């Protein structure tokens, strides 16, 4: 007995044949069509328990047909196939009521499994097809298998409020993914508020997130709203969540559990209605083992994990990204550029330690600094080789000059993250603290935890060192005894 009837629509006869054979072997009754008109006629006649259709048909785009099908037969599952493997294709498929989106080429076993799951599930409620305007600025670029997996996950999440944890190296585009979740989700009408935990002084994080009352601490001369209040009805993006101090982690966990918070110095609970999206370039499981991140908070945040692959793992996306960034800088007023095939191959072979952000910066330099209309492999090789030659002198002495240059480079990179704005106040003490902690830790490791020898090595009074160890919570001291 057939498991159900499947209608297949694709203008490629080879694909129709392959799908017909695979679905028939799996026990389904199959009818195939080469155009949208035939598919629509079958649907209006009540035929088929499931539809599989390509997006681009000779007579009509499937995205125009899907809303009509869902209006006529809201319980009919539709699987959309497409060779236009972009983020917007996945989003449009979801918005127009598709059960699943599959980028071509796809695995036939996966398709059979999806068909079986769709036919066995209880009939879904009618989907509210709101439609999205076509947009020139696609937020995510790339057609690699890794990115296709991300697009499909994002498409499923758009009509939910599930908490999402995004992991990935610096520069991979974690905030872009968070913004896409907001801009194309059901909270798109609300605010999107981003907070970088690494850029806020530790003693100000709770005030930054939850706000404070007048007089709650020195300098609090007026009531201040926090990011939770600013994000009400929208999305709160907590970037670099691994840098959040323990005290703030405890308060955040309470908010996630109870759905309310109090301001610093306040007593009245405030109900909150925000979607939380968190991100980290650190392995939070390692931080949990080190006692630096709460395990219960991790499980609260990690409802839907999304890993953004580094650019070196999706080198096939480099050409698309290059064209995207050249078009972007041209719209900003820079000269039109082309890039030859050899230059693209050079870029695809490069490791991209700074990921997509590094590639974007390279494209900006190429467009701004080179008068040539066509960017060649030699130009690209020169640009990519420069950091290695300038940052590593022929004879590394490890002396003060080299350390000073490293600090200068770090600070230049840090300031560039804020664009035309400035970092939060308190930078002087924040930088000193960042340098002080690894310095004291290294001294304690070198002296095997002997505080007297470490104080002598550092030129500090022993009591001063003990206070700093306590203030900085240098746990390496205790494990080195």
Automatic annotation (TrEMBL):
It comes from the Bacteria. The keyword Nucleus does not apply. Pfam families: AAA_lid_14, HTH_8, Response_reg, Sigma54_activat. Residues 140-368 form the Sigma-54 factor interaction domain. Residues 5-119 form the Response regulatory domain. Keywords: Activator, ATP-binding, Cytoplasm, DNA-binding, Nitrogen fixation, Nucleotide-binding, Phosphoprotein, Repressor, Transcription, Transcription regulation, Two-component regulatory system. Its main location: cytoplasm. The modification 4-aspartylphosphate is found at residue 54. It is found in: Cytoplasm. InterPro entries: AAA+_ATPase, AAA_lid_NorR, CheY-like_superfamily, Homeodomain-like_sf, HTH_Fis, P-loop_NTPase, Sig_transdc_resp-reg_receiver, Sigma_54_int. Member of the two-component regulatory system NtrB/NtrC, which controls expression of the nitrogen-regulated (ntr) genes in response to nitrogen limitation. Phosphorylated NtrC binds directly to DNA and stimulates the formation of open promoter-sigma54-RNA polymerase complexes. This is DNA-binding transcriptional regulator NtrC. It comes from Terrihabitans rhizophilus. The lineage of its organism: Bacteria, Pseudomonadati, Pseudomonadota, Alphaproteobacteria, Hyphomicrobiales. The gene is ntrC.
